Amino acid sequence: MGRRVDRAGRISILKHRYHVGRHLAGRAVTVESADGLLHVSHDGVLVATHARRHLADDEDRMDRRTKASRPARPTAGEEVLRKVDSSGSVSFAGTTYRAGNHYVGQVVGVRVVGDTVQITQDGLLLRTHRTRHDKLKEFGALKNPGGRLRRTTQDVG
Question: Using CB atoms within 10 A of its CB, is residue 143 exposed (0-12), middle (13-18) or buried (19+)?
């Protein structure tokens, strides 16, 4: 089962928090339960082992959250590219949406799907936000897929 590490370097399983390392903040980890222990791995490397704090009868509930959580792949929709600023956010339709400090300076995709804004990179879903921008500005943001046009000396007249 997978979990995302929070800013403090912890994951949450059945209302219990386990420390896995602050250096993994924002990253996805895999959790396996065996013999009363939780083994936490990142990219196939074991990063932490903890004694299980929940009841053995609750083992089958550990996976339910991940099945209903955000999809691993973004859903269909028109995508535009944005560069993540120094605060870890991207601008879309006059509103900033958080991508995460790990992505500062990198280019990510932004797409509107229903009432959500999805932030993607290399075909993987990074974050999903509820739309907060003015829907009237959405067309302009989608029409300019590379972001705000840069003024040149030829444009000045």
Answer: exposed
Nearest to 107 by CA among 130, 126, 83: 83
Amino acid at position 42, single letter: H
Q: What tokens were used for 3?
A: 């979990």
> Residue 77 and residue 50: Cα distance in Å, rounded?
41
Q: What is the pLDDT of residues 135-144, one digit of tens each?
A: 887 777 776 6
Q: Dihedral through CA 13, CA 17, CA 22, CA 24, nearest 10?
A: 0
Residue for token pair 């929709």: 77
Return d(Cα 110, Cα 128) in angstroms, integer.
10
Pairing type for strands 116-121 and 124-130 reads antiparallel
Can you tell me whether residue 71 is helix, strand or coil? coil
What does the pLDDT look like over 84-102, one tens digit per residue? 999 999 998 889 999 988 8
